[in-house]
Fold this protein.
Amino acid sequence: MKKFHLSAVLMMAAAIGAFTACKQGSSQSVQTTISKDSLVKRGNYLVTTMGCNDCHSPKVMTPMGPALDTTRLLSGHRSDMSLPPANNEALKNGWALFYAEGTAMVSPMGTSYAANITSDATGIGNWSLQQFKTALTRGKSKGIETNRDLLPPMPWENYKQLSEEDITAIFTYLQSTKPVKNIVPEPQLATR
Ligand code: HEC
């Protein structure tokens, strides 16, 4: 009888062990959610410190100069704002001119507008991670290999060596941003 008790106890212990293992298995999916959160955090950190807002976020003017327009972060050059005429004399002398919001640049090469990189469909909401990687590290418009090269001042050459982890973190963060609908104008290349 004693022996039977012992083996029953052992069986119970095994069952408890299996149950715990099962629980551990299910806690793995919890871990994936946590790691998505940490990807978003890391992505936010990278986007902030790598200066994406400098060009991709509209600004509001303050007595201290331009400040981020927090209502439309990362939504690119505003579609409802046409640029004032640029100083042609300065351009002829080799100057590149930044619009004060930082979202547009006029240079002897033409005019370029910072893209909408929010999670909206007019931004990168429908992009795949692969597309994002191709845009960021190979400088291809919309992340499609056969598309045109991205124009200055998008500093994609600086991002060539980003690790897979960092690209994934930036992408995951951008996909978690507030969607802002904004269709950025097409660039105008200088005809010379
Ligand atoms: C100095 C300005 C500047 C900085 C800094 C910058 N960008 Fe850009 N970016 C641009 C401009 C301008 C374009 C549009 C170029 C064009 O249309 O050819 C662009 C284009 C892009 C595109 C391609 C969008 C499309 O529709 O094809 C992506 C993606 C992008 N930037 C992501 C980023 C990320 C992420 C960061 C920060 C890690 C960043 N950019 C930093 C100016 C900048």
